[in-house]
Amino acid sequence: MTTVLIVDDQPMQRFGFRMLLESQDDMAVVGEAGNGSEAVRMTAELHPDVVLMDIRMPGLDGIEATRRIIASGDRTRVLILTTFDLDEYAYAGLRAGASGFLIKDALPEELLSGIRAVASGDAVVAPSLTRRLLDAYADQLPSPSSGSASADPAGDGRLSSLTHREREILTVIGQGWTNAEIASRLHLAESTVKTHVGRILAKTGTRDRVQAVILAYDTKLVSPS
């Protein structure tokens, strides 16, 4: 059973999400929050598997709420909801630690599959779309602190434990390659690629594939095109 906290300042929007999620045998809505402050508090109390997070809310917005939830170390994953697929707020949400984002007018089955994907540890944003998003906004938004990225990839501590092959795979993940593309182009079995990706996430402390893409940008393995 996947537990979900719905966060949106519009009561009718929350009602619609609740109706949809509660129609599923494998999902349970554990609460609703109308702003970011409530979202942070309720996540700490309820420990949902997934927070369905609106961005634009009065008071504490969804980006800062996401940052605080992720910083708390809770196992909860955040799925951002946004109005535009290449919106700078969505990028900021991903950098804050969200596991992906969806458009608010996504089809019901897209929302449900997105929640299931995030709950299982996958990223919701397609690799190619993640690359587009980062290319569009990498130079426009604040960089992470100087201690978390390096102009020299070899000097970044998060990469020091990676093997040559793992660093190669992290680079092409940052370029938007899917597991199938990596397997085909590097002449590896797809199961081997999945194993490498899992090790990369574990060694670098990244939560999912989206965060791995951001790491590739932060450490200059990949540069905006």
Automatic annotation (TrEMBL):
CDD domains: LuxR_C_like, REC_NarL-like. Residues 155-220 form the HTH luxR-type domain. Residues 3-119 form the Response regulatory domain. The keyword DNA-binding applies. It holds the Pfam family GerE. The modification 4-aspartylphosphate is found at D54. Keywords: DNA-binding, Phosphoprotein, Transcription, Transcription regulation. Gene3D superfamilies: 3.40.50.2300. Coiled coil: none annotated. It comes from the Bacteria. This is Response regulator transcription factor. It comes from Streptomyces atriruber. The lineage of its organism: Bacteria, Bacillati, Actinomycetota, Actinomycetes, Kitasatosporales.
